[in-house]
Amino acid sequence: MLTERLRAGVANGIQIEKSVRFDLKEAGCIFIGDGHVTNENRPADLSLTISIDDLRAIGQGKLSPMGAATTGRLRVSDMGLALSLQKKLKALFANTV
Predict the structure, then answer these.
(1) What φ, ψ does residue 54 adopt, rounded to 5°?
(2) What is the pTM of this model?
(3) Most C-beta atoms within 10 A of its C-beta, which of 5, 8, 13, 55?
């Protein structure tokens, strides 16, 4: 399960300074914040809305995050914050999706 893999990444020292919520549409949501990863639908500093299939495609390098955002497949609440967290999120998602 994706949540467990992300939880392992956080446990292995990958820390995100701000809270992030992935709204995975019909697949639920993932909240990352305060050193925890949960499926609770909680308010976050950054909210990303994307299908689980598109999230997997980004993780596999088959879809670029910017391409997904410009075509409406990825909705971002704060693009500046998303860009500043991009490297950390990429590290967290490496080998998880």
Answers:
(1) -70, -35
(2) 0.88
(3) 55
